[in-house]
Amino acid sequence: MSASSKPEPLLEVKGASKTFRSRRGMGAAHAVIDASLEARPGQFVAIVGESGSGKSTLARMILGLTPVTTGSIELGGVDLTAMNRAQRWEYRRAVQAVLQDPAGSLNPRKTVRRALEEIVRLHHVAAGSSARAGAVSEALELVGLSPPDAFLDRFPHELSGGQRQRVLIARAVVLNPRIIVADEAVSALDASVKAGILRVMMSLKERLDVGYLFITHDLPVVKKVADYVYVMKLGRVVEHGSKEQIFADPSHPYTRTLLAASPIL
């Protein structure tokens, strides 16, 4: 798709910063500094950098879990901090999360059926028990948990790590989001399971036109799946560009260092 025909950015981060101050006023930690980025439907955007670069803090800011100190995060041109209750509710549906630890993100006391149907009911995705059950089954099918009946009544401890991650993706997809923020979503999985999860994510991108903000330190994965890449160092975005540009002709010394240290698949 040419630059002129790109859809307008759905999610925009504009000069966002996050400063954590100590309770005793002994100093401040600048976790994210003047970060700007865009995410569009159907686009796979990666945010890369070492541990401590500010990637996960930025993800939490985008998800509305950590307030922005300065700058803004906008959905459809509306600042997250200025949204009314209805707009904020829509934001939660439109921008979903898939996190690193599927075991910790799923309630161990709830079956897959209950965990997903609660989300459907709370967000009024479908009316009536039959429609809710259908929406849940469809989401499980989309992420490769088929037949759904084989998984609906299982608890998290009865699933493998890859299956739990697919349930998390299904939990996000059932709300028909426009952007999924995936923070180290495949880093804890072995190679074969990781490949399967990435195939699911790419399939959802093509079938549902969902976009991704994919936070990772795994550059070989980024090279395989990303469309656009942002590089963070010490809280700042130091470089960004298309995947081809970043991997073939990086301009920042830090990006070149990351690529030099990255394993080759």
TrEMBL record:
GO MF terms, alphabetically ordered: ATP binding; ATP hydrolysis activity
UniProt keyword annotations, A-Z: ATP-binding, Nucleotide-binding, Transport
Entry's Gene Ontology BP terms: transmembrane transport
Keyword set includes 4Fe-4S: no
Pfam families: ABC_tran (PF00005)
Protein name in UniProt: ABC transporter ATP-binding protein
Recorded superkingdom: Bacteria
Domain ABC transporter: 11-259
